[in-house]
Amino acid sequence: MAIPGGNGKTGQAVAAALHERGATAVPLGRGDRVRAAAAGCDAAYLIAPNMHPDEPALIAGLLDELRAAGVGRVVYHSVASPYAPDMPHHLGKARAEDLVRRSGLHWTILQPGAYLQNVDVTGPVRVPYDVDAVFGFADLADVAAAAATVLLEPGHAGATYELASRTATVAELAAEAGVTAERVPGPSGLGEWLDAMFAYYDRHGLPVGTRTLTALLDR
C-alpha cells in the first residue's frame, strides 16, 4: 500500500496499522517519485500536509501519478465537515474529494474529526475557541485502524465515512485529566485560515457521530 504524504504522524500511524495486519506499507515523502514507488501497489492512502495552500492541485497530481502507476484503489484522508464555507482549508478538501470521486479509480473517503492528540491535557489547557464547544474527537490510532480496514477489506469502494472516537468538549477532556481549560481571547496569531477555523469552532464546534467508526472497528 502506497502512502503519499506518509511521513507525518497520520501516515506513520496508518503504516503501523497496516503492518499489524500483515500488509506492506510504502510511506512516500514530498521528494519521492510517486509513480515509481507506487508501481505494484494495490491501493494508496492520500494525505495532504496540514493547511496545504492548494490541496486540490496536490491531490490531482497524485491521482495522475497513481493512475500511471497502475494503482486501482485510493483512500483519501479528508476532514469532518469539508463543505464548510467559513473554513477555507476545509473547502480545499471538499474540492479534492470531488477530484477523487471523478478519478476513475475505486475510492473511499475518510473524514476524521479533530484528533484527541491535538488537545494537550498534561497541564492547563488554553485554546483560541470556546472550551464548551462540542466536538467529535478522533483518536489517531482509531483512524489508522479504520484506514487499514478500508484498504484491506472489500465493500468500502464508493463510501464516505465520518470518523469520531468520542463526543466531548475541551472543558470535559481537561476535567477528566484534572486540569483547567480556558479560552484565549483575541486572534491566535497563527494565520488567517486557522483563525477562521477557530471562529467556526466558537460558533458551531465540530460535532461528528461515533457509530461509523465503532462499526468499522467492529466494537
Automatic annotation (TrEMBL):
| Protein name as annotated | Uncharacterized protein YbjT (DUF2867 family)
Q: Which UniProt keywords apply?
A: NADP
**Organism ancestry:** Bacteria, Bacillati, Actinomycetota, Actinomycetes, Pseudonocardiales
Protein's UniProt keywords contain Transmembrane: no
Signal sequence span is none
**Positions of the NAD(P)-binding domain:** 32-154
Cross-referenced InterPro entries, in alphabetical order?
NAD(P)-bd_dom (IPR016040), NAD(P)-bd_dom_sf (IPR036291), NmrA-like_oxidored (IPR051164)
The domain of life for this entry's organism is: Bacteria
Entries under PANTHER family matching the protein: NITROGEN METABOLITE REPRESSION PROTEIN NMRA FAMILY MEMBER, NMRA LIKE REDOX SENSOR 1-RELATED
